[in-house]
Amino acid sequence: MPSYSLEEAISTIRDQYFALVPARLLRLPPPPTLASSAGQAHLARLLLDERRFPQPEDGYRRLFWRSMLRELESGLRDLEGEADDLDLEIDERFYELLAGLMIADIPLGSMAEAAALQLGHHILRNRAQLDITTLMGTISSSGRSRGRILELGAGTGFLSCLLVQQGHEVTATDLGEVLGGGVPPLDRLRHNVALNKLDGQIRVESLDWMDAARGLSERPDIWDSILTNPPDTIIAADVIYDPDLIPPLVCTLSTLLSSPTTSTIPRQAIIAATVRNAQTLSLFTQCCSESGLEVVDIELPPLDPEQPTFWDSGLDVSVPVRIMRIVHRGT
């Protein structure tokens, strides 16, 4: 780890904590430094005493504090017998916090996946290649603005939160209910949007891809609302993973991209897909072709691991991600 002051090193831990860097990839000072009286005091002040920022979900916090306590215990063993720290103990508040999180036992579900992180990187750094522009006057390579965006399968809402802060008019969508119970994706999405204090800026709606194949009169009202004023760009990340979901996904894309509009802006979808199974991606492109959709891979500069846009999650550069532009052949 570079040579920082102790306070700077602990501040870096705080930054990684709020960036949801996986516990196994945290950049930490040496364990004895972390476990020292001053190290623990700074850690407690920055992560326990200060409550200026919304806390990550309990699942992440549980993994984070497990890792931190392992490091603290290791550092304490290394410091045994040193004159300055003869009576040193680990702050009980760290143990109490982890114990409470273990009792809560809420599953981890707030971390952005590789596809969303990579697409977010390119939205910030390679906007022209994506042909995504803001409502604040930036002109795309086509010379026209693409300010209105709809996200499919928004999940945590990472991309929607990023885009609305770039000046876009954003609608984030996900399932409003799930079979077998559990927390509906839409509830988690609303929660994360509210945590980022963007609930007044992002429109959050339930959208089931299965409804795309229904007749106009059979679809929920949200479809009519969206199609009356369709988005300029549809975005989605990590939605191509289940072969059974590909037909409804493609039907949804086709419906959104081909609906009548008075706009002169050619509509597009930008899909970032983690390459898990080549056959699944092949099925997706085949289904798109059969539905009158053209799929083109977007050529983008590789990510620089030395200058990451986001904290290195171990996913950004190691996991292959395919970013595609999809348009309706009739537009």
TrEMBL record:
Organism this protein belongs to: Dioszegia hungarica
Record GO terms (molecular function): S-adenosylmethionine-dependent methyltransferase activity
The name this protein goes by in its record: Uncharacterized protein
Alphabetical list of InterPro entries matching this protein: Methyltransf_16 (IPR019410), SAM-dependent_MTases_sf (IPR029063)
GO CC terms of this entry: cytoplasm
SUPFAM superfamilies, sorted: S-adenosyl-L-methionine-dependent methyltransferases
PANTHER family: HEPATOCELLULAR CARCINOMA-ASSOCIATED ANTIGEN, PROTEIN-LYSINE N-METHYLTRANSFERASE EEF2KMT
Top-level taxon of the source organism: Eukaryota
